[in-house]
Write a structure and sequence with these properties.
Structural class: alpha+beta
Helix content: 40-55%
CATH superfamily: Cytochrome P450
Number of domains: 1
Number of strands: 9
Order of helices and strands: HHEEHHHHHEHHHHHHHHEEEEHHHEE
Number of helices: 18
CATH topology: Cytochrome p450
CATH class: Mainly Alpha
Oligomer: single chain
Strand order of the largest sheet: 1-2-7-4
Shape: globular
Length: 519
């Protein structure tokens, strides 16, 4: 005979006694879990300082809605190399250039891997792409292939006609709105031009208007950056307490269905533009379906299956659609908030380009102040405020601290950008001139400013991202004068952030413009 869950309990046991029993049992489990935690100093080895963790959840409760800011303030108390527990996972938070150099340069090999996370499980089939893929031969093979066929300097140069045409259409659309004195949603306009531009670069065609693609990409980046309990307290994963698993399944399904449709259409010759002078990145991958990624490597015969193609495309689309538009949004926000900087940028553009034509890509190397503006925007508004998490592949001692194997590493670039010891007492101010006599590049050699990461896991798409940012920002600043709508003052501009893998504005940027070129 079947016995129900409660049949074994004494009939006289009251509900209050049952509650007390479960509370005591839960507390006992919590302390067992806590004292078996790898964050404890069991062998006399010194861990970095940090706040005391709670049982089960560790320090997750201290992160809040904007974890990069919470960790910034915790680091002021515990130092630039801080240890916290995220559930069961020992985590190191780095908040200074010197500390970042130790972890990402001196011990780069040890911290070159990525943790296994639920978002990668759903979006990239457990890590069959680049960003969240664990360090090893597969990652090296895919990275090399993507650089060769999409992200190299020669490939980026080939896309120049597409950039020119799409940015020209952006200017024309803004000019039409300006002519009737209407407000424009600049966030949406920038996102749209980047979607069109990168769709043609990646897929060889425009995006299907029937598919609302941008929200899927936004959701993917948000869910890839949030602190998901399922990643840190695995036994709670089946409960999906935050609802992230449900959202991951929905968003990943939408993206994968879109790419499946694109693969099928390409194989059937549907919606392909025969006028393209080159074969797109996506078309090249599909043409290699079920063949080796690197046919010359007999030791590692990785195959381009459907899952590999879809996983790689998720990475490429997310990086090229969203992160670039986020930087442009924040940069324009700061230009509107600081009219002095906007005027200085427009004067440089007038000097280099003149008022009788639009900006050409050949003008960009001459725009030194534009580069200062972009660097200052990266400093205050890094695209990935905590970069993408790294993971240690072995026990290691860094700066006298013991870092156990499988520790997660978070590099708080948002905090580093606000450090007065690095950027002087006006670190909170948007002041591009600070870079005038400061030779800092963006390739990861100068650890004060590493918006694209550095070392083995540095972003391979930096060059493509920068040329897109520069030409769009230069064109918009050169072709139009800008003001906030409804008499809003610059100091009233909303600066609220929305945390995820990237750090976009929480609300759209609405502006009014006036065409300023001489016809």
């Amino acid at each position: 005979m079947a016995i129900s869950y409660c049949d074994w309990l004494p009939s006289q046991m009251s509900s209050s006694t049952l509650t007390l029993l479960f509370v005591l049992l839960g507390t006992l489990c919590s302390f067992i879990y806590f004292f078996s935690s790898p964050n404890r100093n069991k062998n006399g080895r010194k861990l970095p300082p940090g706040p005391a963790p709670l049982p089960i959840i560790g320090n997750i409760h201290m992160l809040g809605n904007l974890p990069h800011q919470s960790l910034h303030y915790l680091a002021k108390k515990y130092g630039p190399i801080m240890s916290i527990m995220l559930g069961k996972v020992p985590t190191i938070v780095v908040s200074s250039p010197e500390a970042a150099e130790l972890f990402l340069k001196v011990h780069d090999v040890v911290f070159a891997s990525r943790p296994k996370v639920q978002s990668a499980k759903y979006f990239t089939y457990g890590g069959k792409a680049l960003a969240f893929t664990q360090y090893g031969s597969y990652w090296r093979t895919v990275r090399k292939w993507c650089i060769l066929h999409f992200l190299s300097a020669s490939e980026v140069e080939c896309f120049a006609p597409i950039r020119k045409a799409e940015v020209g259409l952006l200017v024309e659309s803004v000019r039409k709105v300006a002519a009737v004195g209407e407000t424009i949603n600049l966030s949406l306009a920038v996102a749209k031009v980047l979607e069109e531009m990168m769709s043609k670069v990646l897929f060889g065609r425009s995006m299907d208007d029937k598919i609302d693609f941008k929200p899927l990409v936004d959701e993917a980046l948000h869910l890839s950056g949030v602190f998901n309990l399922s990643d840190y307290v695995p036994f709670l994963a089946p409960l999906d307490l935050q609802g992230y698993t449900r959202r991951l399944k929905k968003a990943s399904s939408g993206l994968h269905e879109f790419f499946d449709k694109m693969i099928d259409e390409y194989q059937q010759g549907i919606n392909m533009d025969d006028q393209n002078p080159y074969r797109s990145f996506f078309q090249l991958m599909v043409s290699m379906l079920d063949t080796p990624i690197n046919p010359n490597d007999e030791d590692q015969p990785y195959i381009f299956g459907r899952e590999n193609i879809k996983a790689i495309m998720v990475d490429m689309v997310a990086a090229s659609f969203d992160t670039t538009s986020t930087t442009i949004e924040w940069t324009f926000t700061e230009l509107l908030k600081h009219p002095r900087v906007m005027v200085a940028l427009q004067k440089e553009l007038e000097s280099v380009v003149g008022r009788n034509r639009m900006v050409e890509e050949s003008d960009l190397p001459k725009l030194a102040y534009l580069d200062m503006v972009i660097k200052e925007s990266f400093r205050l508004h890094p695209v990935a405020p905590l970069l993408i998490p790294h993971e240690s592949t072995e026990d290691v001692t860094v700066n006298g601290y013991f870092i156990p194997k499988k520790s997660r590493l978070l590099v708080n670039t948002w905090s580093m950008g606000r450090n007065p010891k690095i950027w002087s007492s006006n670190a909170e101010e948007f002041f591009p001139e600070r870079f005038k006599d400061r030779k800092i590049d963006l390739r990861g050699h100068d650890f004060e400013l590493i918006p694209f990461g550095t070392g083995r896991r540095g972003c391979p798409g930096m060059q493509l991202a920068l040329v897109n940012m520069r030409i769009i920002l230069a064109q918009l600043a050169h072709c139009f004068d800008w003001e906030l709508p409804d008499g809003m003052l610059p100091n009233e501009l909303d600066m609220t952030e929305k945390f995820g893998l990237s750090l976009p504005r929480a609300n759209r940027l609405l502006v009014k413009s006036t065409y300023r070129l001489i016809a």
